[in-house]
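User: Fold both of these, please.

Assistant: Here is the first one.
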Amino acid sequence: MSGAAPPRFGQVALIGIGLINGSIARDMRRLGLAERLVCAARQPETRMQALALGLADDATPDPAEAVRGADLVILGTPVGAAGEVARAIAPALRPDAIVTDVGSVKGRVVDFVAPHLDLTRFVPAHPIAGGEQSGPGAATDRLFEGRWCIVTPSGRTDPDAVEAVGGLWRALGARVEIMEAAHHDRVLAVISHLPHLLAFNVVNTASDVEGALQGEVMKYAAGGFRDFTRIAGADPALWRDVMLHNRAALLEMMGRYSENLAALQHAIRWGESEALYERLASAHDIRRGVSRAMIAASPQAGRGAGTLSW
């Protein structure tokens, strides 16, 4: 139903107001999708910045106060805090309020909120978008255009609530995919959580080299090192939370990666040129295919989009 009119909400409560929720607020404001935006954040400076940037009409340290009267609540907290927040807001929620989230892990979020929320009105979602910066000041317009948003309802979720959340993301320019939560977590372990773990570890490996070599590594770091480790600039607290709460899927993918790395190590150690080339060529071809698919799906496709990085 991508051609349906975008949903419009009365009051929207944003619990946490960083890059993702802040960007949602900017786009909802720009598109006129909400009459009133209220955010909850613990730090006074965060609330002040959100108000100064026009991301909210009101800001409070109390999540329950923020959701009172809201017809849509968007949880933008770390996964590990979802249960605490759900417990805090539950008594203040309207019976018909829709609650959704934007976390990178879905299975554990459902586990955490289940004791407190009506799961028929809870629609887990994950916009695959972001950056290395955090906080309200990192929010930007049109962050979600052409990006995927994966929605992971259960068999108990109200279809109208699913359609409202999916309609919101389509209005923000995202492409919406419905997926089971456990499957989402395995997919994201491969395409996001493992790459972040590797980037953090490569930087640590570079810092571990001895003496003068370490200075030269840092001095000449550019090109491949810079590009590959860009995502290691992301918030370490956020990524600790993601990795611990998707540990089963991440450990599975780490095991697969270790096996592939061992095969490369063997080929290099024993000079197996053909085996090494085949593995590199396979990755090269897959990467080019992914890049072509992303360019074709980009909103700029056909308008001189050029190359698309990921």
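And the second sequence with its predicted structure:
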Amino acid sequence: MSVIQAWVAPAAGQKLTKQEVDLGPLGSDEVEVQVEHCGLCHSDLSMLNNDWGIAQYPAVLGHEAIGRVVEVGTAAKGLKVGQRVGIGWTAGSCMHCRPCKSGDQHLCAQAQPTIAGHRGGFASRVRAHWAWAVPIPDALPAADAGPLLCGGITVFNPIMMYAKPMSRVGIVGIGGLGHMGVKFAAAYGCEVTAFTSSERKFDEAREFGAHRVVATRDPDAVRKLAGSLDLLIVTTNVALDWDAMLGTLAPNGRMHVVGAVLEPIPVTVFPLIMKQGCVSASPTGSPVAIEDMLEFAARHQVLPTTEHFPMSKINDAFGRLHEGKARYRIVLDADF
């Protein structure tokens, strides 16, 4: 099917309207997926408002899509009609560059974002290269699995790369990303410290698995953690007291940024040298990393905390996200 129904953003900051969209012929290495659910990520809001300067309009947003394969291209591998899959931030990559051949397809210079120059998952159907349509384990509730495909892998990847089950891990920001980071780190066996600017989230952070909760606006509380954390994952997109954050690192500790902080992060190098510390960052993850994350989530029943809207209420959902009221991820249920 080339003509689909989709919720389209006509221009930056404008309300979405339901329209017919012609996807054209299915590529030989693509699959087409009938959307059942699609998470609403803060990145969708950033793209709607063109905060990053890479949006292309008219835009069909949505990059946490869950659904069933309805058509398979002639060169597509490993998927069949009727199979439930998920499509996250990336809908395709070149598959022949060095990162792609090394298993780091998410670092491909030609990677195709699902919502920039491509039609995303706020639609009746969405397409992706077969390798980026990741099977969803039967043990995961499909209705709530969507946010794992972007927010989930974004926080899971640094935990798998840089933490061990006995590591002391800090998660800065208990929002759409951070609450999943706490859940994953706790399930992995880490001692988890949650940092939040909102004291009303203290109890929830503990329910998510945090062993300790600290107010980022309390400098004394942050200073008491000096030299104690092996890994500090920053999920917020706002400026922090970076010297204080770096001060929490233990020897060989690492501050890893996954929140889209738009301002430069000042780093005082000498204290970092003395503790042999690191500052790093990462995007989402490769298809195999996403598969591993989904399997881990299914095994340990790590799921985002969600609230649901019918997709026909998509503008209301965007409004709730913009007002900072989402607890903690919004999922849109297709009702075309």
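Residues 183 and 302 are 6 Å apart (CA to CA).
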